[in-house]
């Protein structure tokens, strides 16, 4: 960083000739495409920032007359620019460490993106004159015009834009009466002396749609009367941006193919699993360019008999899994067996479900984060081509072989138990750096996993192997996919699960019959 790029480490410049020299220095040492004025609450600090692609690359302070200040700024304008940017850090006073650090100034500049406006030289002159006079305009500035109201209503879709609300403001939720029950709220207050007001920028943004939220009565009172200090302008602007992004995503989904959605939830470790919300369903389906066709079909919802799983429960488990698969198949006949499946439970349960659903239809398992409990795909695009499979162990395989699917982690118990069985291990992993609950982070990665495992199981069967011992440590989605990779005429698969400090067989999948069968191995 050039030494003088952070002039704010020194006293403010009080001679125009010094700005001329500094401008020449900047021109030879840095690149910038925008020139901004950054000021804070009550204009206690004013910093001139040179910005390159939203990063502050230089900063200085001026102590000049209003006219000289504008002249100084014009000396610093990048080539081709005639206007300036004005940014208001509402609700905060710039700290010494922020003013003297380009990184900190960049953080502030990005944080107040919704409170940055473009100004011509005449407007900036007016700002510096107001600053010198230390005068505040009283009362509100321009009223909100009909055109601005129309724009706000248009991009809010008539709903409260407060984070997590989204209430329909065209109807009274209690009586059902139609009407306009909305309130327009300024991010930067229209009145300079308001809770979120400021000299110059209040007038500038008083009729700007980007500075106005549509709110319900409760949240309008919250930000203006109850907890105004908790909701500075930059936070409200962030709400507006997030609302637009989310609503756009959801509305874009109207152009997607509608598919039925099923939830198959089995309790894990005595804990029930929450059903996916409508928003989580829409977010999950967006990745496969689909949208839900009607309401969520609940196949099984945390069966109380499975809260405590013992040996007797495991003996009855195959029938419970079969019933779930049968219901999904029966109810998707009209959709050509294409559906999204939100399934969660113990890994053997999910593998059995995947095996019975098969890979000839288009059942797409969805991922649930174990950390957050949300259903969502972490990646918008696939990150790698295919998982890694060590096929060398097939050379030493005879009648039986172990397939260890280690996607979430690689437990040491796999090696210990393999040693006790005296069998070779075929490792199935993802490329280094992608391990974890999100190892399968996109449906195409899931499709690649199924394809590679299908090929592996074919090779195993062709080798003459009579039984596959399946060890697995994977997410809910990956577990279903592993089951879907088991085809007709593959060798039988014995699925293990963790129990105390070892592994125990929990499910036997036999693909050698006319239809795949699952049973208890005990």
Commentary on this structure:
- There is one protein chain.
- The chain is of the alpha/beta class and 522 residues long.
- The protein folds into 4 domains: 3-133, hypothetical protein tt1805 (3-Layer(aba) Sandwich); 146-252, no CATH class; 256-365; 388-519, Dna Topoisomerase Vi A Subunit, Chain: A, domain 2, CATH 3.40.1360.
- The protein is 34% helix and 20% strand.
- It is built from 15 helices and 20 strands.
- It has helices spanning 16-29, 66-76, 96-99, 102-111, 121-133, 146-156, 201-205, 217-226, 233-252, 278-286, 311-331, 347-357, 413-421, 443-462, 476-484; strands spanning 34-40, 46-52, 55-60, 84-89, 116-119, 183-186, 212-215, 257-259, 261-265, 290-292, 297-301, 338-344, 362-365, 388-389, 400-406, 425-429, 467-473, 493-499, 502-510, 517-519.
- A 7-stranded mixed β-sheet has the order 14-16-15-17-18-19-20.
- Helix 13 (413-421) links the parallel strand 15 and strand 16 (425-429).
- Helix 1 (16-29) runs parallel beside helix 2 (66-76), helix 12 (347-357) crosses helix 15 (476-484) and helix 14 packs across helix 15 (476-484).
- The chain starts with 15 loop residues before the first helix and ends with a strand.
